[in-house]
Please model this.
Amino acid sequence: MFTCNLTDETELRLLEIRHAEALYLLTTSSSAHLREWLPWVDHINHVADSRAFIESGLKQFTHQDGFHAGIWHRGQLAGVIGLHGIHWGNRSTSIGYWIGDRFEGKGLVTMATKALVHHCFDELNLERVEIRVATGNPRSQAIPKRLGFTEEGILRHAEYLYDHYVDHIVYSKLADEHQ
Model:
């Protein structure tokens, strides 16, 4: 199973079925905060919905096609980070992340993303890692910028978010840019 210690108080752990209730509670308690940028929030209505998400990540992990890891801080689930899928022919992936509102501002997502980028290049031997962020979400944009990703451009109307489309900025990092 995938685990990674970030600090004495913070770690990444592959989400498992036993984490479904914690994931559900974090998602629902942060739904107003998350809903601004994530189109799936309104579809999380029961613990079973969180369980299904975890099962999909475990299936990805089994097939070496990505995974979902919990960001655990001081023993509590604080957020989620993962690989949306791995394109082995191109040796590329994209990273997605979110954090519960009460855990914002602690640098947890930046630490988690940095660790996952290292995993992608050092363990999985990938060539390219991508992060896509809504143009109106500066907090999320700050993460790839801090980690030395290159801004490649804007995908117009890349995602339908409840009642409107949002544009995405595409950031990438290549293996030879990784330290």
